[in-house]
Amino acid sequence: MKIYVVRHCSTVRSEQKIFCGSTNLPLSPRGEEEAKRLALAGLSPDVILSSPLLRARQTAEAIAGGHIPIVLDERLRERDFGDFEGTPCSRSDGKPYRHNMGLKYPNGESYLDVAARIFPLLDEIRTRFAGKTVCLVSHGSACRVIRSYFLEMSDEEFYSYSQPNGTAEEYER
User: Fold this and answer.
1) Domain map of the chain by residue range?
2) Which of 3, 44, 78, 121 pairs with 131 at a CA distance of 20 to 30 A?
3) CATH topology of domain 2-172
4) What is the mean pLDDT of residues 127-131?
5) Hey, how many other C-beta atoms are within 10 angstroms of the C-beta on 121?
């Protein structure tokens, strides 16, 4: 089984490095260009599972080109940044939440919360789509957690990894 993990293409907020977790944003002009490049990348999955957030759906639709089924799955949504939503990612008071698996953003989620919804989905995909090529379209924190499912990562590797917007990582299982 082959799994492509795609981080949604750019939005205005991602370009400005602002937390956009659960905010339903469209792709920016740059993101639309990234989506066109992804559509031409030749991923050719049998099915696409996507976060229901608009930026991920638009990315999935570009990859699908109207020919590949898209299944929306809430478990692929971005980490809930709670009270940090809409604020700069560079906030110094946000560092503990970015570098601690179990620490939840105030009124938000921890990485463990994200893993608790994504790991069962990945187990399900392995059974449900055995022998198929699957594309997952998700978000930065979720892509980091998905990577940790497939690869052994130290804490330092986990916290320093960031999949760029509009890119695909490939995993075999």
Assistant:
1) 2-172
2) 78
3) Rossmann fold (3.40.50)
4) 95
5) 19
**124: its two tokens:** 């399900």
67 a catalytic residue: no
Tokens for 106, please give them.
């105030």
Q: Quick one: residue 139, left, alpha or beta (phi over 0 = left, psi -120 to 50 = alpha)?
A: beta
Q: Which structure tokens are listed for 25? A: 């944003």
Q: Tell me what pLDDT residue 173 has.
A: 76
Nearest CA to 138 out of 1, 5, 3 is that of: 5
pLDDT digits (tens, 9 = 90+) for 6-65: 999 999 999 999 999 999 999 999 999 999 999 989 898 999 999 999 999 999 999 999
Residue 78: active-site member: yes
Candidates 34, 67, 78, 172; catalytic one? 78
Tokens of 19: 């937390």
Instruction: Look at the block and give the residue holding tokens 């989506």.
Output: 35
